[in-house]
Structure formats: C-alpha cells, structure tokens
Design goal:
Layout: H1 6-19, E1 46-50, E2 59-63, E3 68-69, E4 79-80, E5 85-87, E6 94-96, E7 98-100, H2 107-132, H3 137-141, H4 144-160, H5 170-204, H6 217-241, E8 245-249, E9 256-262, H7 266-289, H8 299-323, H9 327-358, H10 365-369, H11 375-378
Parallel strand pairs: 7-9
Antiparallel strand pairs: 1-2, 3-4, 5-6, 8-9
Helix pairs in contact: 2-4, 2-9, 4-5, 4-9, 5-6, 5-7, 6-7, 7-8, 8-9
Length: about 375
C-alpha cells in the first residue's frame, strides 16, 4: 500500500475547503470553516419559512402578508400593524393610514361646491323676478304664493348638498340626511299641491261640481303641511331610535381610512327616499292624466316633465349608490340632489321666465285664457 505524504494530505484538505467556501478572511485556506446553512439571511419585511423535505438549515424568505411587518433579520413571524396604520413599501415599519373623505379642497369636492353655490342663486333670482312681476297674468295664473314657496325650497335643496361635502363631523352626520329629506319633501309637496290645484280648478268649473269650495289656498297649504308632517315624523323617529353617526371605515381600501357617515338605519334611509319617490310618482301621475286639459298654458305639462326628470335621476341614483365606494357614494348623492333640483327649475320655471323676459306679448290675460275660464279660482295671490 502506498503511503500518502503529508504534503499530499494538506493539498487534498485545501482543495476540499476551497470547494466548500473558499479562503478565510485571513487568506489561509486551512482556517476556513464550512458553511452550516444552505440559505441566505431573510431581510426585514420577510419571514423564514421551512422548505418541505429539506434540512432545517434550508428555508425560504416569504414576504409578509398585507397589513403585517417584520422589522428584524431572519424573523420567523410577521406582526400586524395597528388598525390606523399600514406597512410601508418595504414592510419593515408601520405608517399612519391616509384619511379620505369628500373634501372642499379636492377637485371633485370643489366642483360640486361651486355647482351648489351657483345653483343656489338661480331660484332666488327667479323669485326676485316673480316678486317684480307678481301682478302679471302668467305669475298670477300659476299660483303665485305656491310658486314662491317652491322657489325657496328649491334654493334650500341646492344648499343642502353642501352638508355632504367636507369632513363628516358627528353633528353633520346627524342632521344632513334629515335636512335633505325635509327640504325635498317640502319641494315635492309644493309641486303636488300645484298639480292638484290645477286639476281641481278645471273640474270645479263644470256645472254642478262640488269641488268649487275646495279650490282655495287653504287646501294647498294643507297638502304641503300634511306631506311634510309625515316626513318629519319619519325623520324624527329615525334620529331618535337609530341616528346616523361618524364612522371610520377600514375595510374598503387597504391603507386608507374612509371617514363617512353611517346612516344608522338603512331601512329608515330608504324609507325616506321611498317617501320622496311616492310623492313624486303621485305628482307625475296626476299631472300626466291632466296634461290634455284645455288651456293655452297648461302647467300640468311642465309638472309632468319635471317629475319624470326628477324620478329618472333618483332611479338612476339607486344602482350608482349601491355600487360606489368611499367618498364616491357621497358624490353620487350630491350629483343626484343637484341634477334633480335643476330638473325642477328648468322644467317648471324656464318657460315662464322666457315669456316674462322675452315674450311680454304672451304675458296677457287674453293669451293665457284661451279656452280656460278658471283664472279666478287658480289665482291664490
């Protein structure tokens, strides 16, 4: 058997060490220690995970799941951030979440705010025109008092949309939906009262009609008061039993806290919207059935178009409201408020304003009467 010289043994050892890790920091190959692991260290933001079928020294680095961090090297676990914080990009520390709401400063909120404020002045301008021309036939024939009350309520409808913009404070959450419901109920009640008064005025002119005694301003005020009272009872019950409140929603977008108003009772909210829809539907049906009444300026035609536009806006609002998330839910409701109010202003008052301003020759008793003989019963001024 051939003996191996010491030099040959040293050479073999050095070759083996070179294959298992190379030279040491001192440059002496014989001092190098073989590695005891087969994986690199896991950086912060990851955790160690064993590899099935491999030795314990072999592992893989797994990124921390969403919402969790690891701030140490070779960590075996990740830790959740507090509810109001979210991991940074490296997932090695928690940062405060961003608060989101429909603010006045952002482009969408600023656009809605400017639209609401600008729109608020339009019914007031028309009201000023009506006050100036209150003795003209077209203003008197279309129930001057109810028209003024309707214009005031339309201005408040535009103004109510501002309550949904800005930071949703507790007091704002408490009153915004109730205020919106009440001003719109007043508005639609005025339209309903105008519609019924027009129909009664026509029917009352027939010989032997018993409705003549009903064609008085008190009836229209009773209709408005009764419809508004029902909505007031509904809103009062809502505010007493399950009032809306401020809520920090962390479930919609990761890393974002949605500051919003919780309705408290979704059933009460949709009952309020449904009641408005019921009043608008009744007004639409009555006006639609009376659209062919003989009159050269039959107001029921304009009421029909206004209620049809109003209902179309709010029917379209329902799926948009249910599908939107975060601040866009509020934006959808503000859009619906502004557009539906504009529908009433345009359909009911634009034709009259056009005649008052640009066609004064049509603003005469003879032109408005045509086949109508009921101006005295409709004139409640």
């Amino acid at each position: 058997m051939t003996n191996v010289r010491p030099l040959d043994v040293r050479t073999l050892r050095n070759n083996l060490l070179l294959e298992n890790g190379g030279a040491s920091s001192t440059g002496r190959v014989e001092d190098q220690v073989p590695l005891s692991v087969c994986s690199k260290s896991c950086p912060a933001g990851t955790r160690k995970a064993a590899i099935r079928g491999q030795p314990i020294c072999c592992y893989q680095c797994v990124p921390c799941p969403p919402g969790e961090i690891s701030n140490e090297t070779d960590s075996f676990d990740c830790y959740k951030c507090p509810w109001d914080m979210w991991p940074n990009h490296g997932k090695d520390r928690c940062l405060p979440k961003t608060f989101e709401f429909l603010s006045f400063e952002e482009s969408l909120g600023a656009m809605l705010t400017s639209s609401s404020i600008t729109s608020f002045t339009i019914p007031l301008s028309i009201l000023g025109l009506y006050l100036k021309k209150k003795n003209t036939p077209i203003v008197k024939a279309n129930n001057y008092t109810l028209s003024c009350l309707l214009l005031v309520s339309l201005s408040f409808c535009f103004l109510s949309s501002l309550m949904f913009i800005g930071y949703p404070q507790s007091i704002k959450c408490f009153i915004q939906q109730a205020a919106f419901g009440m001003v719109f109920t007043l508005c639609i009640s005025c339209v309903l009262a105008k519609t019924l008064m027009v129909v009664i005025a026509f029917v009352a002119t027939k010989p032997g009609s018993s409705l003549l005694k009903l064609a008085k301003p008190q009836l229209s005020y009773t209709i408005i008061l009764g419809c508004s009272l029902l909505q007031f009872i509904l809103c009062t019950s809502w505010m007493s039993l399950a009032p809306p409140f401020q809520e920090n929603n962390i479930d919609i977008y990761p890393g974002v806290i949605i500051v919003e108003c919780n309705e408290g009772s979704p059933i009460a909210f949709w009952c309020m919207i449904g009641y408005l829809g019921l009043l608008a539907t009744i007004s639409f049906l009555v006006a639609f059935l009376a659209r062919r009444l003989p009159d050269s300026f039959n107001e029921t035609k304009f009421i029909t178009f206004s209620m049809l536009a109003f209902l179309s806006v709010w029917v379209s609002f329902i799926p948009a409201y249910l599908s939107a998330r975060g601040k866009y839910i509020i934006a959808m409701e503000v859009f619906a408020i502004i557009f539906s109010t504009w529908a009433l202003v345009i359909c009911m008052f634009l034709p009259k304003c056009f005649i008052i301003l640009f066609r004064p020759d049509m603003n005469t008793r003879q032109c408005l009467l045509g086949k109508q003989r009921t101006e005295n019963t409709m004139n409640t001024s």
